[in-house]
Each structure stands twice: as C-alpha cells, then as structure tokens.
Structures
1.
Amino acid sequence: MKSMIKKLFFICILTFFINDTYAKEDIMILKLKNGDVEIELYNDLAPNHVKRFIKLAEEKKYDGVVFHRVIEGFMAQSGDVKYGNSNSENYNLKLAGTGGSEYPDLKAEFSNANHERGTLSMARSSDPNSANSQFFICFNSAPHLDRQYTVFGKVINGMEFVDLIKKGDGSNGEVSDPDIIISLSKK
C-alpha cells in the first residue's frame, strides 16, 4: 500500500512539473506602456503560427513595433517587423502594415476557434496563405472573422491594458502617433 501511495505521489509531482513547464512555454508577456499582458498560445490549433510568433519574439523583432491600425470596438493590429519597428532604420509609419518578416509566408491554419474578446489572430492579405508576422488582438467578438483568419492565442490577463492602446484617427484605423510593443517574450 505504501509503495502504491509513493508511486501515485511521484506521478502527481511529475505531472505538475510537466504541466507547469508546458504552460510556461505557451505563455507570452506583451509589455505595453500601461502594463503587462499575458497571452496563452494555441500550439494545438496553429503550431506553425505559434512557432513563427515565438521565433520573432525570441529574435526581439517585435520589440519597438507600432500598433499601426487600431479600430475602437474591433481590434488592435501590430507586428510589421519590416516597416513598423520604431527602433529600425527601415521604420516608415506610412508603410507600416505592408511589411512582414524575412521568413516565408505561412499556410493558413484555420480552426473552429472563435474571434472573441482577447483573441490573437494573424493578419493577412486577401490570400489566405499570406500571414507572416502581423497579428491583431480583438477588443470584442468578431464572428465575421471566424474560420477566415488563423487564431493562435488569447489574452488571459491584462486585457485592460490592450483596451488602452491608442486608437486610430484615420479612415481605416491608421494611428498617427502609435503606441508600441515595448517587448514580447516568454513568461
């Protein structure tokens, strides 16, 4: 009986550490001027998009990137590492939103995950397989995007800071003096 209890205890401890390690690998911290945002990544739904997001974050490509398109009640878009990085010599606010990364575009990984408040999804052109580095965070539910864009994560803490991102003043949500991603890293 003691042997059985010891085995169960060992299994419980091992499961805890495995789950804790796995959970931390799937959590990112998005630092904004008003506070930190915790993002859970959906590796099971969009493994290639998650891999790209983590890769660019580890390379510090998202640090300093502007939220170039922010529409009240809809979404905040960022992630143009080519033209939207305010720390880069290539930074050009007029071109922000037209660039990507040095890596090839990603094949769509559409799923049944809904675009609801806090959802992270990859931006793309009219070609479903054109997602690269740009992403958006939904302020509210946007069911018209479901199964049209790749959902790859969700804000699990700090959505109130996302709500404070400066909204666009242009016709398509363009932001003239945009907020930036201070940093993006694994938890």
Note: Strands lie at 27-32, 35-41, 69-71, 75-78, 119-122, 135-138, 151-157, 183-186.
2.
Amino acid sequence: LVLDPASRRFTLADGTSGRLTPGESALVVALAAHPGQVLGRQQLLEAVARRPDEVYERVVDVHVANLRRKLGDDAGAPWLIETVPAAGYRLVASVDPKP
C-alpha cells in the first residue's frame, strides 16, 4: 500500500488505486505512526474525529471495515490491520521509511 496523505490517494501492489475519506486516511496514518503497536479505540478516535461532538465509539470500527473493503484486507488473515479483541487495532504491514 502506498498512501499519499495530502491527496488521500492510495495505490496497491496490484495496481488498484483510489481515494480514502479523511477519516480512513487519518486512521491509516495514525496506525502507520506506530507499526506493530496496538492502538486503542480512544487513541484512534482522537486521530479520526474532525469535531469533538462527532465522536462515536463505533466510528473507528466503521472506518476499519471500509478500509478492509477498499484495500482488500481480510479480518481473518489481515495483511494491513489486525483486530486485537478488547484492545484495539494494530498495523501488521511493514512501514517503509520516507525517501
């Protein structure tokens, strides 16, 4: 996965490309900032909330589900985002350093 956070455009290794919503992009960026580390829903909510009054606990789950659908990630055998029950989510993909 290659993601341009400014344009929110992504490209997958198979050539598939598209655009993420601001929340989806913010979620990937937050997870990529801490690869391999479990981030709780509250931490991720802070990353995706555009306004404090918009925060709903399930918004993170909705963004993860949408990302999995768009990027072809399987919750049962994830290559990008792993669900850690009762804890949160973890980025399982490796992060390349910026050039």
Note: The CA atoms of residues 11 and 91 lie 17 Å apart.
